[in-house]
Amino acid sequence: EPFQDGNETFVRVSYSVDMLVDITPGGLYDYPKSILGIQQQFEQIYHQPNVKWDPTAKQFTVLAHKAVMAVQPENKEWYLVEINQDQPQLMESLFSEAVMKALVRVE
């Protein structure tokens, strides 16, 4: 449901996406320590069950569940802002308390 706040309309849009991340054989990140670091970052962001490493293909498969805020200022074009719960201060600087309560802090 659209949420009206002042002269802006807000709509929360959730989506899922599959990402494939290739590690170039012999490249800058083709080292066990680098691959482990990348895997740990992905698992922290996207959660462990959603991250798979294929050492033969040198490829990560990541299932990401994300959300964006579609914002339309007074009959103008829509724009999108990624909702990032790990950055609450940024979210609070972008959205009013009413929008935060109605659409951002719902996870």
**Uncertain stretches of 5 or more adjacent residues:** none
Overall pLDDT level: 94
Order of helices and strands: EEHEEEHH
Rounded to an integer in angstroms, the radius of gyration calculated over CA atoms is 18 Å
Please state the structural category: alpha+beta
Characterize the biggest β-sheet: 5 strands, antiparallel
The tally of beta strands, per DSSP, is 5
Taken from the alpha-carbon principal axes, the silhouette is elongated
Distance between the termini: 16 Å
Task: Tell me roughly what share of residues is in helical segments.
Answer: 25-40%
Kindly summarize this structure in a few lines.
With 107 residues, this protein is an alpha+beta fold. It is built from three helices and five strands; from the N terminus they run E-E-H-E-E-E-H-H.
Would you spell out the secondary-structure blueprint of this structure?
Elements: E1 3-5, E2 8-22, H1 32-46, E3 51-54, E4 59-73, E5 79-82, H2 88-94, H3 97-104
Antiparallel strand pairs: 1-2, 2-4, 3-4, 4-5
